[in-house]
Design a protein that fits this description.
Blueprint lengths: L9 H4 L1 H9 L13 H9 L1 E2 L5 E2 L7 H11 L4 E5 L6 H13 L5 E3 L6 H4 L1 E3 L1 H7 L6 E3 L1 H8 L2 E5 L6 H4 L2 H7 L1 E4 L4 E4 L5 E6 L11 H4 L2 E5 L6 H18 L9 H16 L18 H17 L7 H12 L5 H14 L6 H10 L1
Parallel strand pairs: 3-10, 3-11, 4-7, 7-10
Antiparallel strand pairs: 1-2, 5-6, 8-9
Helix pairs in contact: 3-4, 3-5, 12-13, 12-14, 13-14, 14-15, 15-17
Length: 360
């Protein structure tokens, strides 16, 4: 994939780290895995390869959760990463696929419009009309290709597609085969095939998984960052990575400003100040870590192109308001209350108070 592409897959961005881990990895590997389970965990959580190459942390959080996720994928059970929006489910899914299969591109984005043909297989109708059902007329989905190649399939936002479509996965997960009745054949899964699905139960439009499908997944719940410092670390790291990948003009370090964004989001999200002394109205949005990252990247862009090359209150204000105010009535009230009861009286935050007041 060209570096001119807006977003490059994890296996390309971190190819050097993956190669270094593979070179010195002499531990047992499940069939068709590019790395051993221990090396996969190192790739996700950071460390050093055997040759001394530094491995950056892709996920900041509980090591046991990642070990459980990797161990699940080495069995015949599929993995379901569950959590609130912005808890890095898709990020972890992508990096697991990159480290284990060498490719994160076997992907199906589930939506309300996803039908069975997009999950199982489709047909080339020109060939179908000319020759009837035949292997040549079969249009393979990412699921079919992952089964044939023994790689991982990623299903993003599994609960967004209808329950009847979800249940088309039951046979694949149970029998590791995909029947094609039109050809009187069944496509068998090669060793190494498995599924990583992500889901959350916070957004609207969620379709619950059937009990039969739930039983075929091992669920790993990815929590929100446990502390302000941990969440700030994640936001600062990801803003830097995304800004660099987008080739944004360099700016002065913005750790303190991003820490203010994370603090603001956590307090409105939790409905109380960090010290627990003041109760606050919550917003209708999630104000997740991912949204804090988005605010940081947008503020970087404004500061680089329209500001003084430094993320400040003016660069943050409009982006903060856009992230918090999803409902013009309820969220505006929550933000205004927060400004008057917290921001206005907090030491060192007067500039942010004035800047946001100019926007709302």
């Amino acid at each position: 994939m060209s570096e001119a592409h807006l977003r490059r897959p994890a296996e390309e961005i971190y190819a050097g780290e993956l190669a270094a881990l593979a070179q010195g990895d002499d531990r047992p590997r499940p069939s068709n895995w590019k790395l051993s389970p221990q090396a996969v965990v190192t790739y996700l959580l950071g460390g050093k390869a055997s040759d001394g190459t530094a491995i950056t942390a892709k996920y900041v959080g509980n090591r046991r959760l990642i070990e459980t996720a990797v161990a699940t994928l080495a069995t015949d059970r599929a993995l379901l990463l569950l959590g609130l929006p912005g808890t890095a489910k898709s990020w972890v899914s992508e990096h697991l696929a990159a480290a284990i299969s060498g490719s994160s591109q076997r992907l199906i984005q589930c939506t309300a419009g996803t039908d069975e043909n997009q999950i199982r297989y489709g047909w080339n109708y020109a060939l179908l009309l000319a020759k009837g059902p035949s292997p040549e007329a079969l249009v393979k989905t990412p699921l079919v290709r992952a089964m044939e190649e023994g790689t991982l399939l990623r299903l993003e936002e599994l609960t967004r597609m209808g329950s009847d479509v979800q249940d088309t996965l039951i046979t694949v997960l149970s029998e590791k085969t995909l029947p094609v009745p039109e050809l009187d054949i069944a496509i068998g899964a090669e060793r190494g095939f498995n599924i990583i699905a992500t889901a959350n139960n916070r957004d609207k439009g969620v379709n619950d998984l059937s009990s039969a499908l739930k039983r075929r997944f091992n669920v790993v719940v990815l929590p929100s960052p446990s502390s302000l410092d941990e969440e700030t670390q994640i936001v600062v790291k990801r803003v830097g990575e995304i800004g660099t990948n987008l080739s944004l003009p360099p700016i002065q370090p913005a750790d303190k400003e991003l820490a203010r964004v994370v603090t603001l989001f956590r307090e409105i999200r939790d409905g109380k100040t960090l010290n627990g002394k003041t109760k606050l109205k919550t917003s209708t949005g999630t104000l997740s870590t991912a949204e804090a990252i988005s605010v940081g990247v947008s503020a970087w862009t404004e500061a680089a192109y329209f500001g003084n090359g430094r993320i400040d209150a003016n660069a943050l204000a409009t982006n903060i308001v856009g992230a918090v105010v999803k409902d013009p009535v309820q969220d505006s009230v929550a933000l205004s209350e927060y400004l008057e009861t917290v921001v206005r009286t907090r030491d060192g935050w007067s500039d942010l108070y004035e800047a946001i007041r100019e926007v709302i």
